[in-house]
């Protein structure tokens, strides 16, 4: 094995004594005192409605990251120079969901207002409105690019306006424009909202030709964007470990081309990766999601800017 990407795992994130790999004198990502990038694990799981286990997602991503090669062949860059730090897990304490999300928003604001690039590892998708609103408070006008199998535009679900199925509705209600990619599960009322307000969507059945439309749709968003990535965007043959998998999703190379385009065309100030629900004995999904995080950080740091 060669060089490896190693997100640090704070002691507070370890739930058992599984050994991590030892790589001797091989280069590794350095934890620095004043990083450009902060990785915030948020094992938040309050409103999952089918499969469960997203609370274990952040730790699984961190563990899998220790087995990822550090050299990025696409960008022809060694990632050992990335300036990052992995924070202890943040778990909101309030029972009330609105208050709990307020706690997370304050935590996200603390890092974003200090000029950090914030990578939040979830946890369920319901958490995403908090760092998005923190980014809006810091940056002013922003847009959101949503990779997702579901539109998540329900006004409420199972009695909660803070459900994972309502997260993009809360972002819509905050006046933040969005672009959804990969949606292939949507209710009638959600579709009516999309049509009435002409919310741009690249549907799941359009993914094979998404690049031809993506750049123009992306250009209509503000210069500053937040990326929220629900891993059920991927086809379940690639990432089965998620609570509500949907057939017909994205595959790796086409997804990376879209993700790279975002970082080249826009100022991406923060990102979250959510809804990994690890399956014991099947680490492939954990690895794919950890590599997704690594690729996003590589694009953010090294992809040529064309905006």
Q: What is the structure about, briefly put?
A:
The protein has helices at about 55-65, 95-110, 130-140, 165-175, 190-195, 210-220, 250-265, 285-300, and strands at about 5, 35-40, 70, 70, 75-80, 85, 115-120, 145, 180-185, 200-205, 225-230, 265-275.
Radius of gyration in whole Å, from Cα? 18 Å
Record field, number of beta strands: 12
Order of helices and strands: EEHEEEEHEHEHEHEHEHEH
What structural category arises from helix and sheet content? alpha/beta
The fraction of residues assigned to DSSP E strands is: 15-25%
What share of the residues lie within helices? 25-40%
Task: Give a description of the structure.
With 307 residues, the chain is of the alpha/beta class. It has one domain (4-10, 41-302): Ureohydrolase domain (Arginase, Chain A, 3-Layer(aba) Sandwich). The chain is 31% helix and 17% strand. It is built from eight helices and twelve strands. The strands form three sheets. Strands 6-2-7-12-11-8-9-10 form an eight-stranded parallel beta sheet, sandwiched between helices. Strands 1-3 form a two-stranded antiparallel ribbon. The protein has a two-stranded antiparallel ribbon with strand order 4-5.
Q: What layout of secondary structure does this protein have?
A:
Layout lengths: L3 E2 L31 E6 L14 H9 L2 E2 L1 E2 L4 E2 L5 E3 L10 H16 L4 E6 L6 H11 L3 E5 L19 H7 L4 E6 L4 H10 L3 E3 L7 H9 L4 E7 L21 H14 L1 E8 L9 H19 L5
Parallel strand pairs: 2-6, 2-7, 7-12, 8-9, 8-11, 9-10, 11-12
Antiparallel strand pairs: 1-3, 4-5
Keywords:
307 residues; alpha/beta; Arginase, Chain A; 8 helices; 31% helix
